[in-house]
Each structure stands twice: as C-alpha cells, then as structure tokens.
Specification:
Blueprint lengths: L1 H34 E5 L5 E6 L5 E8 L13 H8 L12 H22 L6 H18 L7 H8 L3 E7 L4 E8 L3 H13 L6 H17 L2 H13 L13 H6 L2 H11 L5 E7 L3 H12 L22 E7 L4 E7 L8 H12 L5 H9 L3 E10 L7 E8 L5 H16 L5 H17 L4 H15 L4 H11 L2 H11 L5 E8 L3
Parallel strand pairs: 2-6, 7-11
Antiparallel strand pairs: 1-2, 3-5, 3-6, 4-5, 8-10, 8-11, 9-10
Helix pairs in contact: 1-15, 1-17, 2-7, 2-10, 3-4, 6-11, 12-15, 12-18, 14-18, 15-17
Length: 501
C-alpha cells in the first residue's frame, strides 16, 4: 500500500509540473532538491543520487562526455567501438586466464598493425600482405580459447538486472541498467572494474559488428545515406560533419593501440558523471563510490573540441542517385544548447511539425497532399556545439521534389512574416514541457537526465530551469530567429532521387 501511495504521489507531482510549472517552479524544484545528493570524489568523478523509494530497485547511468565529435582524424567510430568493449568483461570476468589472454591480445594487435603498414604502402607486396593477415588471423583464433562469452551481462541478469545497454552520439557515450537496490554494490564493483581495467577483448571481432551496423543503418538505409552525406556537405570544418558510426576505412584502420590512447585521454574521472536513482541510501552510495571508484586514475583533463564551423557563404545542394523513394532533407546552421536562441528554434520546430495539428502536417500532408511524411526539428546531430535545424520531407506519389521543397519554404516564410499565434506557442510549450517531465517519471529517466544535464550544463537543476527559458520565449522571438537563421545563405539541401529522373 505504501509503494502504491508513493507512486500515486509521484505521478501527481509530474502532472502538476506539466500543467502549472511556471507558477510553482520554486516549490517543485525544492521538492526535488530534498531528494538529491551530490558529491565529487577527489579524482574528479561526480555522482548525483536521487532518492525515489517507490520500489526496491535502482537505475544506474554513466555519462562520459565524449562522442563522435571528439574523435581523432582517421579514427572516426572509435567512441562507438570502445562502447562495445565495455561489455566484454574485465581482467576477472569474461576470461579463463587473463595473463595469457593479454599476451595474445598484444601480439594480435602488433600483427594487425604490421598488416596495416603493408596495406597502406603505395605499392604493397600482395604475398607479404597475405602472410601478415594470416598471422593476425591465427592470433585472433588463439585468443578465442580464453574468452567466456557474455559473462559480464549474465552476472547482471542473474542478479535481477534489466535494461543493460549503452549508446554513442555526437556529444556523449552513456552506459545504463537497473538492479534491485540491494544489489547496488554489485553495480559499483562491475562498473568500476570495467572502466579501470578495459581488456580490449575481441576488439577486432567487435569492429566487424560496428561495420555491420554501418552497413545496415547507413549504406543499406536511404535515410541513413542521405543524413551522412548531408552532414558531410553542411559541415566543412567542424567534426559534426563526420559519422558517429565511423567511415568504413577508419573502422579498418583503428587498432587496439588507438583505442587505448582514446581511453587514456577521455575516460578520466573529470569527464564522467554518474547518476543513480531509486531506493538507495546516499551515504551508502558515497561509501561505495569511494571504495570502488576512489582509485580510478585522475588523468589530465580531456581534450576539447576547438574547431568552429565558418560562416556559410551560400546555399549548398547535392543529390544521391538510387532506386529508392525520393526523400528531401533541408537544414540550416543554428546554435548550441547553451545559446539564448536555442529554445526559440526548438519551439519553431515544434510548432511547424509536431503532430497532426502542426502547420507542415496540416498543409503538406492533409490539405495539399504533397507529402507522405514531413517533420522539422532542432539540435542535430548534437547540441553541445552549433547544430542544425532540419526539415525532412517524403513526397507523395507523383509529386516533384521541387514542388514539395517550395511548399516547405512557404511555411517557413510564414513564420518569418509573423503568422504564428499565441495559442500555437502555448501548445508547443506544453508539448516540450510534457516531454521533459515525462523523462523524469522513472528511475532511468531521472538518473540519465540529471547526470547528462550536469555533464553538459554544470547543474542538474537546468532540467527544470530550462522550462523557465521556454516560457520566456515570445512570438517576436520566434519570428526573429526564423529571420536570422532560416535563410537561404545558411541552408544545405540534399535529396535522394531515382537514377532515371
């Protein structure tokens, strides 16, 4: 009964936040502040603990402030490859004999590097190349005898763990799962061990898994191909123009030595934030944190991205030929999440494309029947740096892309002309507010949102303070940002077209 009452109380709090946050922000923020405990270890690792005693479970979220935008030239995809490595166990888990396995892994990487050196010569010796490749394969086969497959994940599952996963984006890499709260110490043990002692077990096997992901999501996917080409055209300098999954040749060229260097630079405590939400005791969590993570090497501060995208000097256009449904992607250079215009651009995207009542849907899909699908959104491919405001449109059968493109511009021009209404703005505010608050309605959402917000903005309270910024946006702001950013000179347009068109 107590658990049910707690769940009802939490749900009512969330509902109240959605409906009336602007009038009661201080009260609700204070309620959350009472549930949150923060501390930073001596090595710089920051923890955010959110007490939520609805049920005897807890969610654990590790945010590493490194993504595709941080990768060295020639090693695109390495953040994603390393993410895969984190599930391969440790010196004690996933192996029958780590000391012997490590010897073979080191020999295997050296053999692979020798093969690469021959491969990239201007005139490689084909016989020698095959000889070196055969040696690498022999060592890779030898390394398999020490591997205990899936032992890391099995330990978690056997202890009631759920939702074990990770993801890599342009701005970040994250790792997360949930456990019964009386297994919290197990999480500390496993998480600290895998980040203190990465093994690079089955590294070259996992590289092929990543390469297959690239084939499925990009090379065999019309939208994936279009997005990859779009970013490469839209960004001439900033690393947002590179694919997070990596270029195929970079996946080939990346070695264990490269991954170790990447780990040493970016997986340092000051670049990691951990969120824990659920039925936990903050004092005990701090004790576990110091016990298991206290000796994580401090390292140097992670390198920062310093490249700025230069101002675009005119519209850029490209096409991709193929035998697929035509698709159009239009994007404008915008701003980073920290910029004062970011929320206004978010609201513009929401008003013109979110749901069946949006302007683009009503006009292009329902009334004129020019599009099968249309949508606009801000903050792609990331939001840490200046990002893109995108519009994706799929034409209806028999509709020319040119006609659809001009129809989209007409709707954008209407925003510049000031046709948006206060009712539309308030509906968009409610949509965004509901999305933010919905993400706080469970342990995983709380842990991930608070940790990520702290990592990117320096304070988990920005989750709520953002709602103030949304409420402060006016119709004049919407018109102003549309006139400033959604202009031809700032635009990149790409389309997939049939080869015979």
């Amino acid at each position: 009964m107590k658990i049910k009452e707690n769940i009802i109380a939490t749900s009512l709090l969330i509902l109240a936040l959605v409906l009336s946050f602007s009038s009661a922000q201080a009260q609700y923020l204070e309620e959350f502040e009472e549930k949150v405990t923060e501390f930073t270890l001596d090595n710089g690792l920051h923890f955010i603990i959110i007490e939520r005693h609805d049920a005897p479970v807890a969610s654990f979220y590790t945010h590493v402030d490194v993504g595709g935008a941080d990768e060295p030239v020639g090693n695109t995809g390495i953040a994603h490859i390393f993410e895969h490595m984190a599930f391969k166990g440790t010196h004690y888990i996933g192996t029958t004999n780590w000391e012997e396995e490590k010897k073979v892994i080191d020999q295997m990487d050296e053999a692979y590097q020798e093969w690469l050196r021959e491969k990239y010569k201007s005139n490689p010796d084909s016989d020698l190349l095959q000889e070196k490749w055969n040696r690498f394969q022999e060592l890779q086969e030898e390394s398999k005898q020490y591997v205990v497959n899936n032992e890391f994940s099995q330990i978690i599952e056997q202890n009631g763990g759920t939702g074990l996963n990770a993801s890599t984006g342009a701005d970040l890499t994250n790792y997360f799962y949930s456990l019964p709260s009386n297994r919290a110490e197990l999480w500390f043990n496993l998480e600290a061990d895998r980040f203190k002692n990465p093994t690079y077990r089955e590294f070259y096997v996992e590289k092929e898994v990543v390469r297959e992901e690239r084939r499925m999501r990009t090379e065999s996917n019309p939208i994936g191909r279009l997005v990859e080409e779009f970013l490469a055209v839209a960004y001439t300098a900033h690393p947002y123009g590179r694919p997070v999954v990596g270029w195929d040749s970079d996946i080939t060229a990346t070695t264990i030595e490269d991954a170790r260097d990447f780990y040493d630079k970016y997986y340092v405590p000051s670049n990691i934030t951990i969120g824990i939400a659920g039925d936990v005791d903050p004092d005990q969590m701090k004790e576990f944190a110091e016990m298991y993570f206290g000796d994580l090497r401090e390292g140097e501060p992670a390198p920062m991205v310093t490249t700025l995208e230069p101002e675009q000097r005119g519209e850029r256009r490209f096409t991709i030929e193929g035998n697929t449904q035509p698709i159009m992607l239009m994007g404008y250079h915008g701003v980073a999440q920290s910029h004062e215009d970011y929320e206004a651009l978010n609201l513009v995207g929401n008003i013109i494309s979110s749901g069946r009542t949006s302007r683009l849907y009503k006009k292009l899909v329902e009334e004129d029947q020019l599009a099968l699908q249309v949508g606009a959104f801000n903050g792609f491919p990331g939001s840490k740096f200046a990002s893109m405001f995108l519009t994706l449109a799929v034409p209806n059968m028999g509709v020319e892309l040119d006609s659809l493109e001009q129809a989209v511009y007409t709707e954008i021009d209407s925003v510049k002309a000031g046709v948006l209404t206060e009712e539309e703005l308030e509906r968009a505010r409610t949509n965004i507010r509901a999305g933010i608050i919905r993400g706080l309605n469970n342990n995983t959402g709380l842990a991930s949102n608070f940790a990520s917000t702290y990592a990117t903005q320096g304070d988990w309270r920005e989750v709520f303070l953002r709602l103030d910024r949304i409420d402060d946006v006016t119709l004049e702001d919407l018109q102003r940002v549309a006139e400033k950013y959604l202009v031809k000179q700032n635009r990149t347009v790409g389309a997939t077209v049939r080869a015979d068109s």
